[in-house]
Write a structure and sequence with these properties.
heterodimer; A: Immunoglobulin-like; 4-stranded antiparallel sheet; B: Immunoglobulin-like; 6-stranded mixed sheet; 5-stranded antiparallel sheet; about 55% strand
């Protein structure tokens, strides 16, 4: 399965500022996903990022708040813009295996970015 | 659209006792099923997946899971837990066709006590 390096691992930011989270994969992957995990809660999909096209956002998430870049098949960034304390969460990137590749391993996750907005 | 339910938010269990966690899902299409574990201050680690075939699947560290299609449930079991199994366990589903998104349950906090 793919190995994901996610940076930064944690950060404390001032409200009103922006933070860009990076996700580097050790192999080429078609689909990358960004999730948010609010304190004590489950994971919620923010958007799906495919190389060469605009990211697809889930209901409740907008590009102006969470712009995503996907410049190539091994890298993606998520920016959390104009942050408020409500944005304090863990943000995780994930890649989905190509379903034609056997054995299908499903999804791999980065170790997450713990964001605290003060 | 899919939905995933984990009815037990917290499960306390004594060390060496068996544990079973249940996950119910709702989907209009066939799905793949996954169990992930999240240890404190860490990311998610895949424990088990059901893709097709035998409804009983074996994972790492003695974990196993059973898919019950008629109940649309995915049971997660371990015959004897260890203190180190204390973690948050998430069930997730993904359509077997296109889409490729994972939908997560709300998680079950397993606390193993001496």
């Amino acid at each position: 399965s793919a190995v994901i390096s996610q940076k930064p691992s944690r950060d404390i930011c001032q409200r009103g500022t922006s933070l860009t989270i990076q996700c580097q994969v050790d192999s080429q992957v078609t689909m990358m996903f960004w999730y948010r995990q609010q304190p004590g809660q489950s994971l919620t999909l923010i958007a799906t990022a495919n190389q060469g096209s605009e990211a697809t956002y889930e209901s409740g998430f907008v590009i102006d708040k969470f712009p995503i870049s996907r410049p190539n098949l091994t890298f993606s960034t998520l920016t959390v813009s104009n942050m408020s304390p409500e944005d304090s969460s863990i943000y995780l990137c994930s890649v989905g295996a190509d379903r034609t590749v056997k054995p299908y391993y499903g999804y791999t996750f980065g170790s997450g970015t713990r964001l605290t907005v003060v | 659209a899919q939905s995933v339910t984990q009815l037990d938010s917290q499960v306390p269990v004594f060390e060496e006792a068996p544990v079973e966690l249940r996950c119910n899902y709702s989907s209009s299409v066939s799905v793949y099923l996954f169990w992930y574990v999240q240890y404190p201050n860490q990311g998610l680690q895949l424990l088990l997946k059901y893709l097709s075939g035998s409804t009983l699947v074996k994972g790492i560290n003695g974990f196993e899971a059973e898919f019950n299609k008629s109940q649309t449930s995915f049971y997660f079991r371990k015959p004897s837990v260890h203190i180190s199994d204390t973690a948050e366990y998430f069930c997730a589903v993904s359509e077997t066709g296109g889409g490729n998104k994972l939908t997560f349950g709300t998680g079950t906090q397993l606390k193993v006590e001496l």
